[in-house]
Amino acid sequence: MTAVNGERLPELPTESLTLGNSLRVRLVPLPHLQSATVSFFVRVGSRYETAQTNGLSHFLEHMLYRGTEAHPAAHELNLAIERLGGTLDAATHVDFTSYDLTLPTETIATGAELLAEVLRQPLLTELSTEKQIIREEILEELNEEGNQIDIDNVSRQLLYPDHPLGFSIAGPLENLDRFESADLRRHHTSHYAARNSVLCVAGAFDPQELEAVIHSHFEGMPTGGSIEPSIVPRDIAPARFAYVHEHGSQTDVRLSFHTPGVASPEAPTLLLLARVLDDGLSTRVHRTICEERGLAYEAFAGNDTFEDCGVFDFGASVEHKKAPLLVETVLELVDELRRHPPTEEEVDKAKRRYLWDLRMVRDDPEDTAHFLGSSALFGLPERIGTMAEQVARVTPSDIQDAVRHHLDPKDAYLTCVGVLDDALLSDVRGLAGT
Questions:
Q1: pLDDT for 324-348, tens place per residue?
Q2: Does the domain spanning 10-218 belong to CATH 3.40.50.1370?
């Protein structure tokens, strides 16, 4: 039991083991729950791709649903999983992909067997139907001229030009069109290997039964090699402004700054900075942008982090003519924190809300699995108490120093997608110094 700022945080009862093939496993029995989640985390995503393979990780994730040797059709596979009482969910991220299966406690062992089957024995055939589905997904991010209009994708292209961190996760249509089963098989062999992955089971289950199932069905996964991300060079983005003309009733705006990654000593400070700015309706971003100035229905600030780098974003969708005022307001928020640290009350509230979130991790088996699984995958602290203690040590002055160091307006990147005439473009660019 860890006590931080008066909060009592019980540690997760974790059993850690490594299989003979180097697969890291975390078992977290939580008998007070009525379900359990088996989750698999693997280093595969757009960051590990090239311009020619961009989108392959996402396509492969989709194809794992389309059948295995024992369940050769998507319908058969989905039916087998749903008969157990759950649904297999998966998500491809920039730097990892996750698979989650939450089930009643009495079927979790069989579910773990099925997940191993999906991960180890995909057929990877009959690509045409899945290509049509993903094509529709990609088209949602493009306009009629085929230009990228998703503000997050445009922003990352600006921040990381010619680097995989600037790729979209789904990739371009031309790549999707030419991917074949052999491409998927090579990608699967390279990435879906034990040394590159973590398996986590959390919730109500019999640890001895699960451990036996895991040894039986996951130990045969090939060991493979460790996948490392491509290095992000310094001064990667010479341009600091991107604008895409897209008809609509609003303009999407992002103001972004480069920050350190999750392994940096500054990571807890940046986490609290994000919560001081945007963690509830009483915090600075919502109060200033929405309540006081009425610029947007909702606005946000947050730190998007990877292993070795990150991006701190401010964003909102506003009426076109309000775009300059939104940029001005965000810069005022940054300037205020550069001149004055946040109050002790703000920081204390941010810490308490973070500690509450940590405490509630054990209420949801999927949250537990993701906390431990992703931490193990990237070599981060796996103890709730360690995370709590790191955050508890952050002071208002630390937050001010981080803002001064990383949120310098002269280093800001501005992205707009919408309708801005020449005068509005000149105004927003002048305000952001781009």
A1: 999 999 999 999 999 999 999 999 9
A2: no
